[in-house]
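Much of the work behind modern protein science is quiet bookkeeping, done one molecule at a time. Below is the pair of lines this work produces for a single protein:

***
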Amino acid sequence: GPADGLLRPGDLLTSVDGIPLSGATHARAVAYVCQAASRGHVTLGVRHNRADIQPLGIPAVAPAHQHQPYDVTVTRNEGEGFGFVVISSTNKATSTIGQLIANSPAARCGLLHVGDTIVAINHLPVRNLPHPEVVALIKRSGTTVTLTVLPPD
C-alpha cells in the first residue's frame, strides 16, 4: 500500500527530517540525507509516483549529473580524522580522493568515492595548488570540511 515503507523508482522525495526539499538542488538534498544518516536515523517525506495523479509542478530531485561538481560536507569528532586520503598528481595539477577509510566520517557519508577530483576545499579552488597546501587547507578546516568534488569520467 501507499504507506508500506518501500521506495520505488519514480518516487519523489519531498522532505528530509521535516526539511522541505521543494526547490532544493540534488546536492543539497543529498547533504540533508547525509547529515541525517550521520545521526543514525532519517525520516523521509515521500510522494509515490502514481499515474493517476498530475504532478504539482514541484521539480523532482534529479539524480546527480555525471561530470557536474557537487559539495560534500564531512564532519568529524575531535580526535578522529575525516577518513579520506588525498592524492595529488604533478602532471595533472589536480588532487583526487585516493582512499576512503572504512567506518570513517567520509565513508559513512557515502558521497565521496575513490577517484573523485577535488575541485575546491571550503569553496577555495585547489587546481594547481601544491599537495602540502591542499593538506593544510583540510587540516585547518577544524571538524567540518566541505569538498567540491567531480566524479571521474
User: Anything to note?
Assistant: The chain has a mean pLDDT of 80. The chain has three helices and nine strands. Residues 90 and 124 are 19 Å apart (CA to CA).
